[in-house]
Specification:
By secondary structure, the protein is α/β, with parallel strands linked by helices. It has eleven helices and eight strands. Helix 1 links the parallel strand 1 and strand 2. The longest helix is centred in the middle third of the chain and has 23 residues. It is elongated. The protein starts with a strand and ends with a helix.
């Protein structure tokens, strides 16, 4: 099986390394950065790399697009004439509904696009952040469409399992976006808001413990990518932000009124929910 990966950054590079570690020999990579391609080849992540996709596409059985959301549909539109008949395409994009709609307009009948989302990213950019061991024990989401063939969905699921993912769940694109707005995008929004809240000083880290470090870690963010993710899922994310604001208002009101019992109730509710989750 010949597998091509477009985009050899932290995620694409991790997939390449994971597939090679799983025994797949014919892994081909494409990236716009020449040093990235050279690094991927020298490290053994890929069998062969290129700055252009044209030479690889006609022979690929599986094509993984590790691209920004805005690049997915344009890539399909530009290169669809080169696709091998029966090629299975997949992605790693953190939003689905908008991207699926865009791809549907340009995807040729000879290709089957199985949309997927590995739930183990990295705040690091570029191939230097590639580490396939992060996928071990991780979750992944598949968002099937009515056009997908079952055998192709299973193919992508099996590839995920082979590189270490242990829980692979099929969900609708709408449910995916709704839940991702809460469990991922809202967390990034909160982290950014905390860091930008203008309360920091030169001595801030003198007072900071693990909770501050953990909460603010994801504020070290790829602004270009996350702007696209936020905007492509803005309705669901706005709903999550508004729900958070409601809960913050509850906490603020208990402080204004010095309502100790209500404050304890809010803490108890959160503790019970967190322990139920984990």
């Amino acid at each position: 099986m010949k597998i091509g990966i477009i985009g050899l950054g932290a995620i694409g590079g991790s997939f390449a390394a994971g597939l090679r570690a799983a025994g797949y020999e014919e892994i081909y990579g494409v990236d716009i950065d020449e040093e990235t391609v050279k690094t991927a080849e020298k490290s053994g992540m890929i069998k062969e790399g290129s700055l252009s996709a044209e030479g690889f596409l006609p022979d690929l059985d599986v094509l993984l697009l590790s691209l920004y959301p805005s690049q997915i549909a344009p890539f399909i539109e530009k290169y669809h004439a080169l696709f091998k008949a029966g090629v299975v395409i997949t992605d790693v994009t953190g939003v689905k509904t908008a991207i699926i709609e865009q791809v549907a307009e340009v995807l040729p009948d000879i290709a089957d696009f199985v949309f997927a989302h590995p739930m183990r990213g990295s705040e690091k950019k570029g191939i230097i952040g590639a580490d396939h061991t992060r996928f071990i024990g991780a979750n992944a989401l598949i968002t099937p469409t009515s056009k997908n063939k079952e055998k192709n969905i299973q193919l992508i699921e099996n590839l995920y399992r082979e590189i270490g993912f242990t829980k692979i769940t099929r969900v609708s694109p709408e449910l995916h976006d709704e839940q991702i707005a809460y469990v991922s995008q809202l967390m990034h929004a909160l982290s950014v808001a905390v860091v930008n809240s203008n309360q920091a000083s030169e001595d801030t880290l003198t007072f900071a413990g693990n909770s501050f470090q953990e909460l603010t870690r994801i504020a070290d963010i790829n602004g270009e990518l996350w702007s696209e993710l936020f905007l492509n899922n803005r309705s669901a994310l706005l709903k999550s932000i508004e729900q958070l604001e409601t809960e913050l208002d509850k906490l603020k009101q208990t402080l204004k009124t010095a309502d100790e019992e209500k404050l304890k109730d809010l803490f108890s509710k959160a503790t019970a929910q967190r322990r139920h989750w984990y």
